[in-house]
């Protein structure tokens, strides 16, 4: 790689790092190109940038970002999942690490903190933003559904309910 290409690679990586919230790092030694492409395409579906890195050049790009503490993890055959959704990145990497033993999660970075592999595995168990929203909507809509079922009940059921309430008071 000539000097000009290295400079453009560093600039591109700086932009990618600075425009995202989290980085998850994994070693991929032993994975085939087909397996890497599968991971990459699933990551892409969720808006995650998954890149097999050039370690020395990536370290140069990291030096001027908030991720500078991750430099020591960029050794060997390294890939980085860079995104605004750390939970989804962790979920996808954990899924592939369980099914493809050669993929090893090394570290991560989220909310200004370096994460160890066990921390990334814990994050992978959290619900995604979409799942959390669905649960909240379900909780909030449950009382409304009960009220609606009472309103839609036949008149006799409402009379029985009203009679039971009057005896209670």
Polypeptide structure, described:
The chain has helices at residues 3-18, 33-45, 55-62, 86-99, 117-124, 129-152, 155-168, and strands spanning 22-27, 49-52, 78-83, 104-110, 113-116. With 169 residues, it is of the alpha+beta class. It folds into two domains: 3-124, 2-Layer Sandwich (Alpha-Beta Plaits), CATH 3.30.70; 129-168, no CATH class. Strand 4 and strand 5 (113-116) form a beta hairpin. Helix 4 crosses helix 5 (117-124). The model has no long low-confidence stretch (mean pLDDT 84).
Question: How many β-strand stretches?
Answer: 5
What is the rounded distance between the termini?
84 Å
CATH class categorisation of the largest domain: Alpha Beta
Number of helices: 7
Task: Give the CATH topology of the largest domain.
Answer: Alpha-Beta Plaits
- Element pattern in H and E: HEHEHEHEEHHH
Mean pLDDT, as a whole number?
Answer: 84
| Low-confidence spans | none
Q: In CATH, what is the homologous superfamily of the largest domain?
A: Ribosomal protein L10, N-terminal RNA-binding domain
CA radius of gyration is: 25 Å
Strand content: 15-25%
């Amino acid at each position: 790689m000539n000097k000009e290409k290295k400079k453009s690679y560093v600039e591109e990586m700086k932009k990618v790092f600075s425009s995202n919230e989290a980085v998850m790092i994994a070693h991929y030694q032993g994975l085939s190109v087909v397996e890497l492409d599968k991971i990459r395409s699933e990551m892409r579906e969720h808006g995650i940038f998954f890149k097999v890195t050039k370690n020395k050049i990536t370290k140069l790009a990291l030096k001027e970002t908030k991720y500078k503490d991750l430099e020591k993890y960029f050794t060997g055959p390294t890939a980085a999942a860079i995104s605004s959704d750390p939970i989804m990145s962790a979920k996808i990497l954990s899924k592939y690490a369980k099914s493809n033993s050669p993929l090893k999660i090394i570290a991560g970075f989220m909310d200004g903190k370096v994460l160890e592999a066990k921390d990334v595995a814990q994050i992978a168990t959290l619900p995604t933003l979409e799942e959390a929203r669905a649960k909240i909507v379900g909780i909030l809509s449950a009382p409304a559904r009960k009220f609606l079922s009472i309103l839609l009940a036949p008149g006799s059921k409402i009379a029985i309910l009203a009679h039971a309430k009057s005896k209670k008071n």
